[in-house]
Amino acid sequence: MRSAVVVGAGIAGLSVAGALARSGWAVTLLERADRVRPEPTAVVLWPNGVRALRALGLGAGLEAIATPLPDGGVRRPDGHWLVQPRALPADRMPVVVHREDLHDALIAGLGERVELRTGVTVETVHAEAGERPAVSDGRQTIEADLVVAADGVDSRIRRRLAPEATVVSSGSAAWRAVIPWYRAPQLPDGQTVGGEVLGAGYRFVSASLGDRGSAGGSARGGIYWVATAAGAARPEPPRTQLALLRRWYAGWPAPIGELLDATDPADLVQQEIRELRPLPRAYGYPAGPGGVVLLGDAAHAMPPHLGQGACLAFEDAATLAALLRESRLPDAVTAYDRVRRPRAATMVRQARRMSAVLQARGRLALRARDAALGTLTPRLLNTAAASAAQWRPPS
């Protein structure tokens, strides 16, 4: 029986661990934290992410937990439309999923062949020709035919194998929250949740998770929102951060103020937005009978403005699983590198272009952005959506 060590039990690690186990591999899943738990937020999945989950055998329950996310358009803080809402073709319509629901589906997909070990911080990786790849936490060394580094943007395995890839700040921070339906504001007739509002270095996006009344007080439906602001992450406690957000977004179009007022500090999740510059020169490193591969944010952390981070991680997992079924292990590691690097580079380039547009600051830059946004943003989004829609898992 072939064996794998997957480092990191986020959505990337869980998806690939389950896929390998369902293919007959013995999998050891290592997680640094003492518990495997998701953020109480949500994630947007574009058609490529949905298609990848189905290829991983996880599509059966996706419809029950996913909510379609129509295009809500783009406005300025004064309410002026920059981009009117548009009807999206069904094959380009994203969905939004509560992370805890997605986490439950991924955990259920692990099966009995996955040994989960928590509280393990991998410090080193061994990937030498002629020897089995291995990882170590300084106390024990675990060998396997394949090592999958799904340990996020701060991946220690990537630092060892691809030191040229440096983690840098994208110059902004993000705050996310899900307001459960029992606390969500009742909106006036004609006022909807959804769409995007752009200011000078500030951005606010919201979406509904299901319909009001579809979930009880303890269930996971509600209203999901994301706010981004230029600058570093804030060191203050969540209550103070929430007060800052209410001040920064005061006067913005409804229902932004209502959503922030209905948010509890315990709902708030802050994240510094970081990315890899440059990307690693390789995503696969043959060693001994197999090798080491980089997956998810460990391989291609990028600005979040196209919502492709989770989708690319699921693409990685689906591609790796398919190649391992079709090819000898060393060949699969090489093929994974050959297939995934160009794909990731394309999506990262598009995300950075969108980031440059959305983070414009200064009077002249904002005027230029607003004047061009009606044609530039749809063109960028259409290109990104087309790239996402065109992806298919290896047959």
Automatic annotation (TrEMBL):
Membrane-spanning residues: none
Residues covered by the FAD-binding domain: 4-164, 290-351
This protein's record includes keyword Protein biosynthesis: no
Keywords on record: Monooxygenase, Oxidoreductase
Keyword Oxidoreductase (UniProt): yes
Listed GO MF terms: FAD binding; monooxygenase activity
UniProt protein name: FAD-dependent monooxygenase
